[in-house]
């Protein structure tokens, strides 16, 4: 149905322009990219049947569903599309996945929603508005400007943003692809007390994530006493939202951000507050679920190799993003593993 798709895209763009002109006080960021429609994926025969389907066929409160949370914006939407496709393609029960997209309240939610719907017509999803002002006052400048975007901190507010009936969620960054069934990750057991699970890296230099002012202040550094604190990447996490809400962990993270505003105790965006609250108290997940750092460091974004061992998820954390390097005709070798999930509609693509 290529003609209908083009007709829809034209009128969607027209509607966006009308809304923007009528409400000039709202900051919007139009999506200049067009995406191909992804194929539909179906459950295998042994998938559990989701009961209690609600409006539009969504089952937002089902514990049988796999709940996935991601942020959504125009700058990273190409990566988001690839990530969504990879999740669906490798899932044995893709129709049992519910996506929860968090977008800035100043973004054009109508356009973001329509872009997702036209690319994934059968996707179970919701879009939630994140009030940037709730965190903007707490953000300190970091070593890379992209890390200072308020939406980068939305992961700390998922328990407040998502419906209270959603009890567990897998949080994913937009610069990754899965090559394994996400239900395996979602099923991670959190034990009796842990709030989240993630691959942790205890051979990393943990002290480097905080400044000398932090380590020289005994009142602050004592937070890690009696904790085997290891680095973990917050781009892939399994979170028990019930326990998060009960423990008011958003407030705990905000308290560290307030300290950071008074005394600079770290340099790296939204990661250090998570480490301060959770490092040493998480359930470790196999490293295969976050082969991170493929985007290189935060300064130059140089090419990197995979870590030793099996791979279930590839994560281009760091400055270099695969779509940008491919467009610049300077890809890293591993960017070829991201390219098959790229749904960008290029001017040279022929409609079939």
TrEMBL record:
EC main group = transferase
Q: How does it sit in the membrane?
A: Single-pass type II membrane protein
Pfam family membership, one:
Glyco_transf_8
A single GO CC term, please? Answer: Golgi apparatus
Question: Which Enzyme Commission number(s) are on file for it?
Answer: 2.4.1.-
Keywords from the UniProt entry: Glycoprotein, Glycosyltransferase, Membrane, Signal, Signal-anchor, Transferase, Transmembrane, Transmembrane helix
> Which molecular-function annotations from GO does this UniProt entry contain?
glycosyltransferase activity
What superkingdom heads the lineage?
Answer: Eukaryota
Q: Which Gene3D superfamilies match?
A: Spore Coat Polysaccharide Biosynthesis Protein SpsA, Chain A (3.90.550.10)
The residues forming the signal peptide are 1-24
UniProt pathway annotation: Glycan metabolism; pectin biosynthesis
Question: Where is it localised?
Answer: Endomembrane system
- Keyword Glycosyltransferase appears in the UniProt entry: yes
- To which protein family does this belong? Belongs to the glycosyltransferase 8 family.
The entry's protein name is: Hexosyltransferase
Q: Which organism is it from?
A: Hibiscus syriacus (Rose of Sharon)
